[in-house]
Amino acid sequence: MASSFCSSFLVVLSIFLGLGTFVLGGNFYEDFDNLFGDIRVNIKDEGKSMTLTMDEYSGSGIVSKNEYLFGRFDMQIKLVAGNSAGTVTAFYLSSLGAHHDEIDIEFLGNLSGDPYLLSTNVYANGVGGREMQYYLWFDPTEDFHTYSIDWNPDRIIILVDNIPIRIMHNRQRIGVSFPTKQPMRLYTTLWNGDSWATRWGAVKLDLSYAPFVAGFKNFNANACIAKRGVSCKGFNAGKNKGLDKQNKQKMRKVHSKWVVYDYCRDLRRYAHGLPYECRKDNLLESQ
Asked: For a surface tag, which of 43, 73, 147, 237 has the fewest beta carbons within 10 Å of its beta carbon?
């Protein structure tokens, strides 16, 4: 019985290793490099938690050591409290170059007492412009909450505390670009975006409130590390191509109350016609 269990375990382990699977409760020391900000990146608790700081001189950020092609990425974040106008706290995947792919979760700071905007976007082959923005149903500065990117070849799901707020399906068959080929690194950053972040740049960063500090902990990834000789094609696929009935209902509830901006409804921006995937004949029923 014991030998049978060991054999089964080794088979599963070899499959994981063969696929380049990266399954862990992440460690900020082991899994990331300092991107910018020097000592403003403060990793603590033996790598289990971190703060990023922005002051009058610089923001700060980290980038994953590995590149990934598909997976689920979770991060618990506590956002900058008080007057955070002009700040951008970001948790995102991105490749490099003019034709890069990118999956964004960005938190756009605001004046004290006004809510944050959670902004999501997707770039494929260098083309973005697919923003959806939300208010949150809690104060994200009071405690940590879990924000997730779940990405496979068929769809991308953005989640808050395991509640789906957005799903983007692969619509390549109708000519809509989707990130399927470019490995991406994971970034976590805090920086000055006051040229656009708060009321489209009308409200600037007030350095009298500096330093601005955001907290991060319990990073987790179940992802395929992209490297020579490893195929990530089927990773994270099949078991959840979309949303089940219960999660569709949760997402509809979020959309009915908390969506602030949806590019598919922006008739001013697209006065000459909505993007192809937003047009009535091409919309997916119930996502």
From this structure: 237
What's the rounded Cα separation, in Å, for the pair 140 and 78? 6
- The residues, any chain, with a CB within 8 Å of residue 92's CB and separated by 6 or more, are 102, 103, 104, 105, 106, 149, 186, 187
- Interatomic CA distance for residues 238 and 157, integer angstroms: 14
- Determine the residue type at 132: M
pTM of the model: 0.91
The strand pairing partners of 145, in sequence order, are 77
> If you ran DSSP here, which 8-state letter would residue 241 be given?
S
Catalytic residue among 46, 56, 67, 106: 106
- Angle, alpha carbons 31-35-37 (nearest 5°): 125
| Residue of 56, 102, 142, 277 marked catalytic | 102
For 39, phi then psi, to 5°, come to -70, -5
131: annotated active-site residue = no
CA distance 106 to 201: 16
pLDDT band at 22 (very low <50, low <70, confident <90, very high): low
Backbone angles phi, psi at 274, to 5 degrees: -65, 155
The answer to whether 106 is a known catalytic residue is: yes
> What amino acid is encoded at 34 in this protein?
N
How far apart (Å, rounded) are the C-alpha atoms in residues 286 and 41? 41
Outline where the chain has alpha helix (H). 2-19, 28-31, 245-257
Three-state DSSP class for residue 191: strand
